[in-house]
Amino acid sequence: MRLVVHVIEARNLPAAEAQGLGDPYAKLQLGRQRAKTKVIRKSANPVWDEEFAFRVGDLKEELLIRITDEDKYFSDDFLGQVKVPLSAVLDADNRSLGTRWYPLQPKSKKSKIRDCGEIHLTISLSQSYPEETATLAHWASDDFASSSDKSSELRKGSSLPNIPIELSTSPPVTDEAEITKQDKSNAGPSFVNRLNQFFSVKPKDTEASVPPVFKHDRGLDTLEEMPLTSSQLSDEQDFETSANMSFDELLKAFASKHEGNDMPGNLSGGILIDQVYAVAPNDLNTLLFSPSSDFLQSLAKMQGTTGLDIQQWRLENDGEILKRVITYTKAATKLVKAVKATEDVTYLKADGDMYAVLADVSTPEVPFGNNFRVEILTCIMPGPELRDDERSSRLVISWRLNFMQSTMMKGMIENGAKQGLKDNFSQFSELLAQNVRPVDAKDTTTNNESLSSVQPETESDWKLAFRIFGNFTVVSSVVAFIYVFAHIILASPSIIQGLEFPGLDLPDSVGEVVVCGVLVLQGQRVLNMIARFVQARRQRGGDHGVKAKGDGWLLTVALIDGTNLSATKSSGYSDPYVVFTCNGQTKTSSIKFHTLEPQWNGNF
């Protein structure tokens, strides 16, 4: 007997972050069995569409589903929960509650947030094992679920088929005779006895339709291989098809299924490599990932890696997925012994000019290795044009840690992984530089284009005059002089008195002195503007339109890049930007995130 739970979606989840969008995932628990969905990045209405199966053992148990927001630095935030008792499922028609929305409840009645949103579920009890459900459902374990935790932007809606595997912690399958015998020996009505009242005896042909993958015999402690399921047959057909295709044909077949997909963004852990190389993007992709290339073998020899096993590329899921598996043993270090590692390498984009490859690295033998996986995203894009019209490629490699379950050693794991990746990709860069030439910023035509893009502007005399004289000072001065001139015409000649004499008319009050001073200052400013206009008109041929103050010369600064900047954050990276100040004017460049070698290629 098992409980099948289909987690479809959730809506109107409360905001756990300032921007209102979190990284929610669902945790399911039935007794000691636990499972977990994938994490949906930046969404308040996540869609999971995942199915889980739990083995049923006690009628008093209840299914607990909690929605949690993933936090990279602290403990995950609780968003809401729902509890469904097994007795409610058992008493429902056809032992199924159907597909419905369940309101999420807060953790306690004292919680300030009362509206926690809703979750869309399908819950049912089943005793048979139809092939479709057995192939697609995740089996919950006593320790942790085996579901993936990748961002939706990297998955692009595709997922691998999850084949159920009988865990050694689960009880062995017993027939109905053994169940009946055990029920008789137990006092009181058991849950299995209650269930047998609802389900009739299965015919033998129904039992034969169950698609078991392995049967575990505790007495012999061996695994007996069973017939292949339809999904396994499909995988073997994909393997045979991929084996007959070249690497270029595999890329073309994959690209035809993913036309129009955007390049994924850099991963949150930081950038390991951001370099331009003098090689075409498709040639760089061939060097790094083609089966005919010996780059990985040379890198393994440089790093002391042994037991390198590179499987061939294969198309899966009707061409939707292009992947391969690489296994090797990392050389021992001062702190960690030699450990085995497995890389699941998957193409996310391949259109001839732009490539994105995601590597999911598992190292279970390192300390706390079962708690996390390392994701490395390699992006290849067209680079800037070189001076000799040679093509170039920009290689960007970023990383992040994907924690499969919470651990108190999260900070220590992140620091250790960061240092290890930094050392490994330093050797990676050295080896790659021996095969293709790195490009410096001075070798590109971008610098010359930035300076040559500043062309002299043509401006008429009327526009120049309006820009210089079109202000409040000139307008107020003109109005004041007209007003004074009109007063002189209308007023009668004043009587000579005091120290005045013919030809000298002095102010007769303090107010007249103030008015005279204001008129003199205004006149001086207007005369300076007239002189500036005349000078600007004479020098207009070489000052790009007289945009600046003073003599009217325009200063152009081309901001290209920065190198070897100091890190100001604990992550080892900075978010640099440049501020220019000239003659009281300020210009600010764009911000480059998570890098110590920013590239701007802009002019100010």
Structural notes for this entry:
The chain is an alpha+beta fold and 604 residues long. The chain folds into four domains: 2-211, Immunoglobulin-like (Sandwich), CATH 2.60.40; 235-441, 2-Layer Sandwich (Alpha-D-Glucose-1,6-Bisphosphate, Chain A, domain 4), CATH 3.30.530.20; 461-542; 556-603, Sandwich (Immunoglobulin-like), CATH 2.60.40. The chain is built from 15 helices and 23 strands. The protein is elongated, with a radius of gyration of 37 Å. The protein starts with a strand and ends with a strand. Residues 129-136 and 143-233 have low confidence and may be disordered. Keywords: Membrane. Residues 146-174 are annotated as: Disordered. This is C2 and GRAM domain-containing protein.
